[in-house]
Design a protein that fits this description.
The chain is mainly α. It contains 3 helices and no strands. It has a domain of 37 residues.
């Protein structure tokens, strides 16, 4: 089918065969459609990656919140530090 979008060729390496076999077990209704299985694998993986990235972000933000205000600096620390900054 004609398209202006990029296309990708995937060679069925042992790793791809293993992934397709797992996909066939998860989605048996598409077991005879490897292209559909590959799309489902990509979608499933992208969703998991998105979820993991969001969890990582939430953990980092919580660590920042937990640390906020927990450091004490000596009197005049910021003023001394700023003396070395260019105007």
């Amino acid at each position: 089918m004609p398209t202006t979008r990029p296309r990708y060729a995937i060679t069925e390496t042992p790793e791809i065969s293993r992934a397709l076999e797992a996909a066939r077990r998860k989605w048996p209704e598409d077991s005879d459609r490897p292209a559909k299985l590959i799309l489902r694998l990509i979608h499933d993986s992208a969703s998991r990656i998105d979820d993991q990235l969001e969890q990582d972000r939430a953990r980092r933000l919580q660590a920042i919140r937990d640390a906020a205000g927990s450091f004490e600096y000596p009197e005049g620390y910021l003023e001394d530090l700023r003396k070395d900054w260019p105007e």
